[in-house]
Structures are given as structure tokens and as C-alpha cells.
Amino acid sequence: MKRDKKPVLYIVIPCYNEEKVLPLTSGIFLKKLEELEAAGKIAGGSRILFVNDGSKDATWEIICGLAKSDSRFAGIAQSRNRGHQNAVLAGLMFARERCDITISIDCDGQDDINAMDGMVDAYLDGCEVVYGVRSSRETDRFFKRFTAESFYRLLNSMGVEVVFNHADYRLLSCRVLDELARFQEVNIFLRGMIPLVGFKSTSVYYARHERLAGESHYPLKKMLALAIDGITSLSVKPIRMITGFGLLVAMLSFLGVMWSVVQVFLGHTVPGWGSTVSIICFLSGIQLLALGIIGEYIGKIYLETKRRPRYIISETTENLKKMQGMDEK
Ligand code: UDP
Ligand code: MG
Q1: d(Cα 53, Cα 76) in Å, to the nearest integer?
Q2: pLDDT digits (tens, 9 = 90+) for 14-33
Q3: Tag placement on the chain: N or C end, fewer CB within 10 Å?
Q4: pLDDT above 70 for 325
Q5: How far is CA 98 from CA 10, 101, 142, 207, 227, in A?
């Protein structure tokens, strides 16, 4: 079903220690917002919402400066660094009551902002979710490309439904955001959660650029951690695999026991120290691995039962303006 009403758009941008990048990209975002408005795709009152994720540099000061200079810039600050996923969620939940659609995007200029036109068009055509998907990774170095693509394959093979090569660049309608707000989990992996929310969705393809400045916050170690979090937050397949593997090993050991009993009766018992030691080492390794995986899940349950807040907003540019007696348009 086509939509006639122009939506109010909030572009949600997480920022962590991005003082080098923000001055470069903020203008680009504003230009895009103007273009979209001029093309009659979005309504006035649309905003660019920066989420400061507890940066240790001048990022928040830059955001406040931008908000002062132009009312189309807005910002919220998390009380401390909580990570990319929490920052995006905080921004989305803040925007939910103020707009019709959100587009989340990184602040480093890597994702092509021109894909936003296609995203809004798809929304006007009736889609509720539009995924931004990287069509090529030519600008990524071989190692980053290989590890990033393995990341999506690993997630899918472990039972987490994710869109291949889609990160957190996506359009969400308010209807989807309202449903997302009902997902109360503390361990957040948006890429796996949005497909669970459902609704009509489509993808828009774009080429990914290099970072305009600064450095990636996702080295291999963090990417692995994100994959493990994603899998253990959204799928129980690893536990099932442990059960299956346990059954297999149990059956093999049963055969082994029968064999050794037969050997004893035949009088062939020899001091088999080497084989005993290697079996013990192998099995204890497997057991520790299995315990570790189960422990990971118990840890997740522990965190979920605490029901701690998923984000804490300490400041907003809206409040700063009120305090200084400036009018919000
Ligand atoms: N980011 C964040 N909190 C963090 C780490 C990163 O809000 O703890 C933001 C960061 O400012 C950027 C986005 O998340 O806008 C993606 O980070 P980055 O560009 O470093 O990741 P990459 O694109 O290399 O995967
Ligand atoms: Mg980046």
C-alpha cells in the first residue's frame, strides 16, 4: 500500500570518540536531510540525532555546538560508554516518540548516505523495514572482508537469522520501533532482533567506503565478541550441538567399553598408558568447551534476570536549549 503522507525522519547516529570525523560528516548528513526535504520525500521537523556513547574526547561538545548552530541537529548523551548496539537502541527509543521513521547509520561516512533516498522510497511504497546492504567490500582490506563475511556465515549457521552484509544501516518505521520496544532483553543484537520483529521489509544496496577519519572500533577481538553475543543471545543451537555431540561420544564410548571387556576376557590386556592419557585429554578438553558454552548461556540468563536498564540518557540537547532559554523549532 502506497503512503501519501510525508514522514518525519530522524537519522540516528551513534558516536564514540569521533571528534575527528563529526566535523567532516555532520555537514554531509545535513545536506542529505535538505535534499530529501526538497525532493518532497520527508516532512519538515526531521532531525539528525547524534547519540554520544560516553566519549572521552570532545564529541559531546561538538554535538552541542552543532545543535546550537542549527535546530535540525539534536543530540543525546549516554551516561557512560555502553557499546554501539546500546547507543543505537537509545537513539531509536528516543526518536520513537518524535518521528515517523528512523534511519540508523554510523557517523564515519563509510555507509553511502545516498542509499537513504531508496530507503525512504521503499517506505513510501509500503515497507516498514529497509535494510542497507553492502554490495561490495572492495575498499575493505582482505582480512577485514574475510573476517566480516565469515561473521555473517557463522551467525547464520548457528541459527541466528541475519541479512548477509547488512550492518546497522537501516530504516525502521515507528510501528516497528513500537514492537521493538517490547523486546525487553538486555543483551541486544539489533541485526538479529529486527528480522524477528517481522513486517514487510526490503533491501537497498550500496558500496561501502573507507572511514573518512579516525579508526575502527571493531577489531577482530570485538567482532568475535559481537558474534558470540549475537549467537548466545538469539539461538540455542550451540547447546543442541553439544547435546548431539555428547550423544555421539557416549555411543562411541559404549562400543569402547564393550571392546575392552572382550579384551579382558580374551586375556589381551596390555598396559595402554598412551591411549588412556590421550582419551582423557581429548574428552576433558571437549567437556571444558561444552561447559564454557553452557556457562556463556548461564551468564546471559544472569544478566537478563537483573533487568538492568539498557541505556541511561544523562543529557539531551533539547534540555540544554531549554535551560539556556533557546526555542526548539
Ligand atoms: N560506536 C559507539 N560505541 C562504541 C563503539 C562504536 O557508539 O563503543 C559507534 C562509532 O562511533 C561508529 C559506529 O559505532 O559510529 C561504528 O563503529 P566503527 O566505525 O568503529 O566500526 P566499523 O565500521 O569499523 O565496523
Ligand atoms: Mg565504521
Answers
A1: 9
A2: 999 999 999 989 999 999 99
A3: N
A4: no
A5: 8, 9, 41, 30, 32
pLDDT above 90 (res 91): yes
Strands (E), the chain: 9-15, 47-52, 73-78, 101-104, 129-136, 166-173, 201-207, 313-316
Higher pLDDT, 265 or 325: 265
Model's pTM, two decimal places?
0.76
Find the residues whose C-beta lies inside 6 A of ligand 1.
Answer: 14-16, 18, 53, 81, 83-84, 87, 106-108, 110, 216-218
Best CATH choice for the domain 9-234+309-328 from the list 3.20.20.60, 2.60.40.1180, 3.90.550.10, 1.10.3720.10: 3.90.550.10
Which atom of ligand 1 approaches the CA of 87 most closely?
7
φ, ψ of residue 292 to 5 degrees: the values are -60, -45
Q: Are the C-beta atoms of residues 44 and 37 closer than 8 Å to each other?
A: yes
| Residue extents of the structural domains in the chain | 9-234+309-328, 237-306
What is the amino acid identity at position 230?
A: G
